[in-house]
Amino acid sequence: MDKKTKKEPGVKEWAIILAAGALLLLLSVPDLFRKEKEETVDTAASVHQSEKQTEEYAECMERKLEELLLGIDGVTSAKVVITVNSTMEKVVLQDTTTDTENLEEQDGEGGMRTSGKSSGEKKTVLAGNAPYLTKELTPEVEGVVAVISGADSAKVLAITEAVQALFDVPAHKVKIINN
Questions:
Q1: In this predicted structure, which of 60-74, 96-110, 135-149 has the lowest mean pLDDT?
Q2: What is the pTM of this model?
Q3: Which terminus of the chain has fewer Cβ atoms in its 10 Å neighbourhood, N or C?
Q4: Distance between CA atoms of 32 and 100, rounded to whole angstroms?
Q5: Strands 112-124 and 174-178
Q6: Dist CA 163 CA 119 (whole Å)
Q7: Which pairing describes strands 141-149 and 174-178: parallel, antiparallel, or unpaired?
Q8: Taking the CB of residue 52, how many other CB atoms lie within 10 A of it?
């Protein structure tokens, strides 16, 4: 007499089956653990790109100022160095939602009590996969040094004032050296 007995799965067996199912589910999502690493790489690339744009901006301003200085009567050569205090800044569009609740209560003795609660949330508006940019802010010029040849002292003073006007920099942060 052959009796086949079926044994119902116990708690241990169900736990093993559940753990195996959870493991299979985690392994089926390949980007689950990579996303954070990729965002870090994207952020580093974005910072590098912003620094490069800032350098290019400063170099462009230097070239323009050199051309301007060479256009002044008597100036035969010019070399300019401009320093900036930050990198290019990109302003993204954000959708802001605000919830406000006000509650007024009157107690048994006739006194009034008012309480309020406010909460808000900001979400970046996306254009495709990238944030929607509203504007790009150029860095502020922090200081200017120009080495020129051939200008008299009156023109050096005029050049200093022109640089102050162009870059909105105080006089103590502008130095014109006449060789």
A1: 96-110
A2: 0.56
A3: N
A4: 36
A5: unpaired
A6: 47
A7: parallel
A8: 12
Count CA atoms within 13 Å of residue 8 on its CB side. Answer: 2
CA dihedral angle for residue 27, residue 31, residue 34, residue 38, rounded to 10 degrees: 170
CA–CA separation, 97 vs 121, rounded Å? 5
Instruction: Kindly report each contact of residues 72-75 with a partner whose C-beta sits within 8 Å and lies 24 or more positions away, as own/partner.
Output: 72/151, 72/155, 72/159, 73/155, 74/150, 74/151, 74/152, 74/155, 75/148, 75/149, 75/150, 75/151, 75/155
Q: Give strand ranges (E) for 8-132.
A: 77-84, 89-92, 94-106, 112-124, 126-127, 130-131
pLDDT in tens, 109-121: 878 888 888 888 9
Are residues 123 and 98 in contact, defined by beta-carbon separation less than 8 angstroms?
no
Could you tell me the two tokens for 126?
């996306």
Residues 6+ positions from 10 with CB-CB distance below 8 Å = none
What is the rounded distance in angstroms from the CA atom of residue 179 to the CA atom of residue 151? Answer: 9
Under 8 Å CB-to-CB from 55, ≥6 apart: which residues? none
d(CA 92, CA 11): 53
- d(CA 150, CA 155) in angstroms, rounded, equals 10
